[in-house]
Amino acid sequence: MFEYDGAMDAEPVIEAMRTAARALTVGDVRDQVRAIQVAQDVLDAAKAERLAVIEASRAYEVDGASTLSTWVRNELRMTAQDATTLTRASGTFAVLPLVAEAAVTGSIRADHVKAFTYGLKHLGPELMATYQEPLVVIAQHTDPAELFQRVRQMRDTLFPDDLDEAYLKGMDKEDIQVTRLMEGWHLTGFLNAVTGAKFKAVLDSVSAPRDAEDTRSGSERRTQGFDEVLTDILNNGRPSDKGVRPHLSVIVDVDTLTASAQRVQATTEDPRRVPAPMPVTEPATLTGYGAIGPNLLMYLACVSDFTAFLMKQGHGVRQDQILSVGRDHRAATLKQRRAIRVRQKGTCATPGCHHTHLEIHHVIFWADGGTTDLNLMIGLCVRCHHLLHRGLLAITGNATNGFEFTNRHGTPLRPRRRSSHRTAA
Q1: Between residues 122 and 184, which one has the greater pLDDT?
Q2: Which residues is 394 bridged to in the sheet?
Q3: Burial class for 42, CB neighbours closer than 10 Å (0-12, 13-18, 19+)
Q4: How does pLDDT run across 181-221, given as a tens digit for each residue?
Q5: Between 68 and 395, whose confidence is greater?
Q6: What share of the chain is helix, strand, coil (3-state, %, to 5)?
Q7: Rounded Cα gap, residues 39 and 35, in angstroms
Q8: N or C of the chain: less Cβ packing under 10 Å?
Q9: Residue 288 in 3-state DSSP?
């Protein structure tokens, strides 16, 4: 096992560079890029490890630098932000040796290391040291964004009161200003969790590409979509998508909802009472924003309509049986669309895609005898839906046993994580 002692084995670094050099002379260009990426990640890890040695020995002072970050900026000509990221990575290796080993051998990327650095800051060295082994395994099989999400989920689950505190701080900062300039208007401001999620839900809905021929840039689609929203509100009311208006979704486990309600109710009855600690349950998630605390959850529950969805079998009744219509209708019903959005947490089902404007697809094509059953339908963004119908993406399976995604060559894409028994508000 790799032990952090300031004398890292150089062989993995040398071998990664040799592999990249060989790949550049022969083979598929995609394999060349993959080999270059591995070599780059290994070199980043080696650089960070050696910076840890410089930090421990204060060798940066020899070159007249007062701190390691200053030395990195001066000697490596990096920006202050890149220098900070690199020096923090060196500190992470010193605390988490398994992370250092994985980085040095190229099995995780430099961006994965950032997630571990984030965890050290927000969860503390003791917790991260305890969970570093399973987190390294996750990092070796997922992209950095997924690892960041797992670490944030740990923080949100272990420290739910911090979520409400962050929401209240956001309430104090919120403001919107529209300033007229010679060329038009300049928008500045900050929105709290709820208002920002509302804004994002509407903007995502109206800024999606209209079709495969829509060549507008993202900035054009967002500004034109926002203009259409304003015009529509002034003239006709709010927009909708096949009966589903842009709305906020709160995804929450039944246990979390029950515990939050009991806690807030007890505090309401006696404000002097110290709130009981929340049990270790998965926190509620506000779609478009992220995890929220129990107090904000109950506020939204107070002002919202509830639609409950059974997300796993129970009491002999299955959700897909309740919301299936067979061959009676081709298009998904309004309840089915809502249920699919909840099942997928509001994002496209394709692995790695995070777009939120969804179209409903029959996994078994309607023309081939497919049925409009919840178990055999899936939500895809416009772009992924077009990829599928161009033969560049294939989907098989069902919601009960899991959908399988492959590219045009039949290579599997990374599967999505399954969700559990949840309720949507």
Answers
A1: 122
A2: 406
A3: buried
A4: 777 788 899 988 888 888 888 888 888 887 778 888 888 88
A5: 395
A6: 55, 10, 35
A7: 6
A8: N
A9: coil
Helix (H) or strand (E) holding 188: strand 185-190
Residue with tokens 């500190």: 91
User: Element (H or E) spanning 254, and its range?
Assistant: helix 254-269
> Which residues, other chains included, contact 380 with Cβ-Cβ below 8 Å and sequence gap of 6+?
348, 349, 350, 358, 359, 361, 388
Angle of CA points 295, 297, 301, to nearest 5°: 115
Distance CA 384, CA 211 (A): 11
How sure is the predictor about 424, in pLDDT bands with cuts at 50, 70 and 90? very low
CB atoms within 10 A of CB 407: 12
CA angle 233, 236, 242 (to 5 degrees): 95
Check residue 139 and give its pLDDT.
92
Structure tokens at 338: 């809502």
**In the chain, how long is the greatest CA-to-CA distance?**
79
Amino acid type, 166? A
Q: How far apart are CA 360 and CA 344, in angstroms?
A: 12
* Count of other CB atoms within 10 angstroms of residue 228: 13
State how far the Cα of 22 lies from the Cα of 35, in Å rounded to an integer.
9
